[in-house]
Design a protein that fits this description.
By secondary structure, this protein is an all-alpha fold. It contains 15 helices and no strands. The chain starts with a helix and ends with a helix.
Length: 314
């Protein structure tokens, strides 16, 4: 890897600093504005005022807001993520046990989205048939119009409950990939239509380009020209679109984890929000910000590999 490539990666990684700071700051102050008292959530509404005050003091919730904010940033910089109010366990430990599940769902969802989008895009771009184009367009509209939780509920009912092809409920005894297939598929269906539109347009432009016609004139087979040249160049914009969809990918993962009762970061976040578990919510927001930046970095690297001119410009 060249020095310019390492410089490019270094600049992108530096973006983690303002991203993490922005996510942490925004989350901290938004949580302070939301109603509810973490001490009441922990001890119950019938707890005495003395007990509530003592618990707030032990958590530092009675300190001035600026002191709480600086302490939060200091702990974040030193890696001291604190202890969960509700689980009474280190926040780092809770996140470490659930992070692999969420990452697997994201990777599988991205892979499924590409598997769905690629044949449909090639079919439309190479068929030249208006009926095929309209069929795929309607299919895209239907898929994109379904809420992720609704599609997840259907997949759960049909393939897990009625057919019994996939396990139901929490992942136990480690990461059971079979239990993550349906949640990943539900997320993939929601982002695949956008990739189909982008990839189809790019493939149509590539198929009709001069270099493809030149390849045919040289006697290259249609399959060689399509998959060796047109698809490589046509996939450049699709890679960018897939990277942009990382926000929807993260959001969809949070939803389906609760629909399928999968113990990932999404389920942990929802439980922590309901319980006003501030250390967990604040840390999870930072983690998701880091994931988004790293996915953008990977997208840029793949884009640069497909189009070296973009890497030089970066």
């Amino acid at each position: 890897m060249s020095g310019s490539k390492w410089l490019y990666i270094g600049k992108r990684l530096l973006l983690l600093i303002p991203t993490v700071w922005g996510c942490a700051t925004l989350t901290f102050f938004l949580l302070k504005l939301t109603p509810g008292d973490p001490a009441v959530q922990a001890l119950g509404p019938k707890a005495s005022k003395q007990a509530l005050a003592a618990l707030r003091d032990s958590w530092g919730l009675n300190d001035p807001l600026w002191q709480q904010y600086l302490r939060f940033l200091g702990d974040l910089c030193t890696g001291n993520l604190g202890t969960s109010y509700s689980a009474k366990a280190p926040v780092a430990e809770l996140i470490a046990t659930r992070l692999p599940v969420t990452l697997i769902i994201m990777v599988l969802a991205a892979a499924f989205a590409v598997i769905i989008a690629l044949p449909l895009s090639v079919w439309v771009a190479t068929s030249g048939n208006r009926v095929v184009t309209e069929f795929v367009r309607i299919l895209n509209a239907v898929a994109q119009g379904w809420p992720t939780f609704f599609l997840g509920a259907i997949l759960l009912q049909v393939f897990a409950i009625q057919l019994g092809w996939f396990p139901i409920g929490s992942v136990s005894g480690g990461v059971d990939v079979a239990a993550l297939v349906l949640p990943s598929l539900a997320v993939a269906v929601s982002i695949a239509p956008i990739i189909v539109r982008s990839l189809t347009q790019s493939l149509q432009d590539s198929v009709n380009s001069e270099y493809v016609n030149f390849g045919k004139a040289k006697g290259l087979s249609y399959r060689k020209v399509l998959f060796g040249y047109a698809l490589r160049n046509g996939s450049i914009s699709a890679v960018s679109v897939l990277g942009i969809q990382v926000g929807f990918l993260v959001g969809g993962t949070l939803v389906v984890e609760n629909v399928f009762a999968v113990p990932g970061l999404g389920q942990l976040l929802m439980d922590s929000v309901m319980k006003r578990d501030l250390p967990v919510v604040q840390t999870l927001t930072v983690v998701f910000g880091i994931i988004v930046v790293l996915v953008y970095l990977i997208t840029d690297l793949v884009y640069g590999a497909l189009d070296p001119r973009a890497a030089k410009r970066g």
